[in-house]
Amino acid sequence: xxxxxxxxxxxxxxxxxxxVGLVRTALFNWAFARHTGGSxxxxxxxxxxxxxxxxxxxxxxxxxxxxxxxxxEGPDEKGGPHAPYRQSQRMDIYADIVKRLxxxxxxxxCYCTTxxxxxxxxAARKAGRxxxxxxxxxxxxxxxxxxxRAEGRTSIVRFRMPDETITFDDLVRGELTFTPENVPDxxxxxxxxxxxxxxxxxxxxALMEITHVLRGEDLLSSTPRQIALYKALIDIGAAKEIPxxxxxxxxxxxxxxxxxxxxxxxxxxLYRERGFLPEGLLNYLSLLGxxxxxDQDVFSIGELVEKFDIADVNSNPxxxxxxxxxxxxxxxxxxxxxxxxxxxxxxxxxxxHANWPQENFDQAAWEAIAPYAQxxxxxxxxxxxxxxxxxxxxxxxxxxxxxxAMKGDPVALLTTARARLAEADWxxxxxxxxxxxxxxxxxxxxxxxxxxxxxxxxxGRTVGLPLFESLQIxxxxxxxxxxxxxxxxxxx
Length: 492
Description:
- The protein is mainly alpha-helical.
- Helices cover 47% and strands 9% of the residues.
- It is built from 20 helices and eleven strands.
- It has helices at residues 20-36, 54-67, 91-103, 114-126, 142-150, 197-207, 223-235, 268-274, 278-286, 301-307, 322-335, 338-349, 363-374, 383-391, 399-405, 410-423, 429-442, 447-459, 467-474, 476-491; strands at residues 7-10, 39-42, 107-110, 156-159, 166-170, 174-178, 186-189, 212-216, 244-248, 251-252, 318-319.
- The chain has a three-stranded antiparallel sheet. The chain has a two-stranded parallel ribbon with strand order 1-2. Strands 5-6 form a two-stranded antiparallel ribbon.
- A hairpin with a 3-residue loop joins strand 5 and strand 6.
- Helix 6 crosses helix 7 and helix 13 (363-374) packs antiparallel against helix 19 (467-474).
- The longest helix has 17 residues, at 20-36.
- The radius of gyration is 32 Å and the shape is elongated.
- The relative contact order is 0.09.
């Protein structure tokens, strides 16, 4: 395995919206494969007909494509030598493997009822013994099996765990050891014949020649069972070797609880809808358990791939910090060239996001103001509140901003500012600034106090893009009309 190029897999279930923890796992697998020159196998675990949906499957494909996390083999048109890559299409493969495992003595039929299992587990707990499966059906005689079948009992298939300690070197956590009493025999096929995750996941990994299994810490307890199953698969000729395992740290949410699908900040769609850049989101997610360097948090995807090493992943839980995610995304917005920025904002400047009539949108005005807006955004959806004054027929009606700015004698100040602006050179933001500064000085006000009523009169808000560049782009006539409207409102 040491000389082979790594083969990793990302194998989500198509249930619900993609989760940022799931994306972090996909990212670490992808970065590891791209760093080492290995391959990414994208596989769909869709054996749960009650929960899986084609809509979720298509959403997964769309999300990974949006993020730029590509794969080398998968269920789409890319295909590959180990197709099919959807578990629902591999049932005959699993059935054959189960027959071979049973024939070789690695698996057996278990006829225990739920009530019997519960009763024996309760007794074991009361006696201070491990409460896992006790091996009751491990070595049934032909007569006992016939008797159970005569009673109408159905059976599941259990894997026979070897009576030995299992030790492995986790790529993230180091050497781990599990003793036999803590890893009992386990089910691999339901009574209705449907294969369980405990079977299909390692079987697919074996048949697809996966070399490295990088997955969440929550799956760590199943690893000794899978290692035992791998040994059995090697015995029956279905696997070549046992892959290396690396268990990634939990992603924690509020209250230091594991980030759940139900947590609002867990949904990938939320970040996409708010206007996170794929580069910004992936940059932040890569920091959940890994670091680029002690003094650098912002980096490109290319730099991530060049630097990523699974040995550098921290085993401690990582806390999801929305403010830090937003700050890193803001940095990535500022790193865009202006053309890319204007194009990235396009969806938010058009219906249904925009709050102005689409016929009012002026591409030239947008391109002129874009460089000033780019330095102010945290997420792309912020753009509408920053530039809406350009495309609305009149400024937004923000009473809080109006009350804050229109103090003292705003009528006198606005009247003077209007007169000065009417005479100013509108080809120069500096000339417009000088006009408002002069109006302020005439009324004993510094620039900050003088420009606040002008800003609210023209844009509707006390905070926004650079005022004098905004005035220039809005234009002389529209700017003066808005100051006139504000004066009329004040007079009323």
